[in-house]
Amino acid sequence: MTSNTTQLNTYNTALSANTVMPHIFGFLCLCIPLFSINTPNAFYYSCIALLLVSSGYLVMLRPSLNLKNPERWLLIAFFAYPLWAGSDMLLRDTWSWNEFKEPSRFILVIPIFLAIRTVRFPLAYLFTGIIMGAVWAGLQGIYQGEHLNIYRAGGGASHVTAFGNISLLLGMMSLASITLFKQYKRPMIIVALTGLCFGIIASMMSGSKGGWISLPLVFWVAVDLLEKPTYIKRFGSTLVMLTIAAIAYFSSGLVQNRVDAVIPSLTTYFTSGEIADGSVGPRLEMWSASWAIFTQHPIFGAGVGNYFAEKAALIEQGVIKANVATFVQSHNQLLQSMAEGGLIGVACVYGIYTALIALFRNALTQNKPIAVCGLMLAVAFMDFGMADGIWSITNAGTFFTVMAVIFAGLSSQRPKIG
User: Fold this and answer.
1) Which element (helix H / strand E) includes 248?
2) What is the pTM of this model?
3) Secondary structure of residue 97 in the 3-state scheme
4) Could you read off the pLDDT of 42-80 as tens digits, one per residue?
5) What residue ranges in 240-337 does DSSP mark as E strands?
6) How far is residue 237's CA from residue 177's CA, in Å, rounded to a whole number?
């Protein structure tokens, strides 16, 4: 009798979890893109809640995993980066919790990935959060730029770059809802384009050039949402992107100022070596410092968190100009990983991007909208990293890791629409 009662209680618990859990996961996945760059505290609490719920779900229900090869490689990449970073600091006796914060996120989000891949929740939750997050960001950008006269709107993000880059990405991801909810195609076209437009507006109001540079790649990837993506359609999407860019340029003084400053700054730097502005010139000088550090430590790098000290030494030697003395990182994820980690560091960082891209490409035939959004995320952040140490920005780094495992988890199951 006791055994039967235990089995019945276990069955009722599992049944209750199967009924309630999908909506809990769905709601939390709505909150993450919604709050990401609009209300940081709510964003971080949502991430913590999703982690706790995922961990509890895995412990209580112990779902069968049956990992596929792309998923195994993803987990290896997610473990390798923090393992390398932690080992590097311990072996050099330079341990810093602040420096370990960025790589540690990739271990923390693993329970989210393992839980979401086994929980079927209505995808309307996630895409509602994505579209509303883009619209909210656009409204904040307009309010801050036009009403408060803030030169570069930052929404509610911790960094203006995170606001501009993520708002643009949310706008582009909104397009996937058209393909996903085919039975509501006409209204979804309007809703998705609204999300796209407000995401672009937020990006324009932020003046973040890194996001604009990523547009050709993201539009190229977005063509995979079509039933028959071809190179003609991909080049056509590039023309659409250029048209949007031209409209943005001629309609916004901020965009014009940011773009027009690029060529003179490049010309001045490469002809005279002088730093003529506060954005392009300093970046070029910091990139030079990163390359110099890498050539001195090509295999293992100078050590995690040691870029600043190595750059200071180069300034004392007269190799690098003192104009960039205050910058703590190189504003380029590739060069930063080369300087601090050498070839091993680059392999660990870009192994994560590679594993994500491989997983999402493998899922294109089975779950196209989710896989395309995942590809947009990976490709865009690789591009964002060309102008910033994008994972080191708390908003952006947390958004990337959590959204990556949400899309990775969903891409391993068939979509549930509703």
Assistant:
1) helix 231-251
2) 0.91
3) helix
4) 999 999 999 999 999 999 888 888 899 999 999 999 999
5) none
6) 18
